[in-house]
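re: ur question from earlier - yeah i can do the single chain one, its not a big deal. heres the input i used so u can compare w yours
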Amino acid sequence: MVALLRRFATVLVLPFVLGLTGCATMGPTSFTLTPDEMERRLQTDLSSLFELLKGTEQRRPEISTMPVSGRLQLDWNVSMPGVSDTDRDGLYGNKSIGLAVTLSGRPDLDEAGTTVLLREVRIEDIRVTGVPRLLGFGLTQLTDRKGMTIPDLPLFGIEDQLRRHNVAYAASSVEVGYRGLRVLIAPK
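and the output i got, formated as tokens:
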């Protein structure tokens, strides 16, 4: 009788224990980075794309998701200082020059799976403000780049997200969604 009770208990308890251990080792299958989190992590700037912007102070771009096309859009607004106070009556006055650049691209992982890259990058729009149209001839080389494609851009690393509860994960792919960038992961 005792042997029968042990077998009965084993049959009932074993699936429950196996189920619990399976859940404990399963772990997450993905994580999502919101546009705000992506903006904070961003490692690239416009001066790497446009020589004219070397040395200018830039804010981080606003990142928007484009789930239907599977792309990310980056909007930079750069303010270049106007002329100095001593030249207040100069050609531009002391008005600053503004530059708005919009890029879009398809996010992807690098070969190591630790950095999110922007591939198929296209310059969607470039606008210059604060310069009279007749005097903006030197900036046409910049605005003529609208619609051009540029090389892949490294956006940010995700190494810190690939270790959870002492388990190492590998990123396999990324997906653009309405909430942000979803990174699919699996234990190594």
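The radius of gyration is 26 Å. not sure if urs matches, ping me
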